[in-house]
Amino acid sequence: MLELQYELESKAAKWTQFSFTWRGVQYTWNRLPQGWKHSPTICHGLIQAALEKGEAPEHLQYIDDIIVWGNTAMEVFEKGEKIIQVLLKAGFAIKKTCSRDPVSKSKVA
């Protein structure tokens, strides 16, 4: 799984990308504000569009969680690396500490 944050390139950062008006004050960001009720939907759409454009291998995505699978650990690793490269090329920042290798085991309740 990967933890992602959509960050605009430095050239584009001077332009507002996300904004809304509340009680007569306009709030603007060049990063998607977390905690805003539409942030998960926007985040999911941005990641999905980047993965489709970059021809990412078969995967499951829910907001910023991406799961890949395969018959061997090496196959899973290669698919994960391909997805990471697609997202980095699209301008996403990825925390390496939040990605899990194919050998990690998750507990299911």
UniProtKB/TrEMBL annotation:
E.C. code: 3.1.26.4
Limits of the Reverse transcriptase domain: 1-109
Source taxon at top rank: Eukaryota
Region forming the signal peptide: none
GO function terms (MF aspect): RNA-DNA hybrid ribonuclease activity
Pfam families tied to this protein: RVT_1
UniProt record similarity statement: Belongs to the beta type-B retroviral polymerase family. HERV class-II K(HML-2) pol subfamily.
Protein's name according to its UniProt entry: ribonuclease H
Lineage: Eukaryota, Metazoa, Chordata, Craniata, Vertebrata
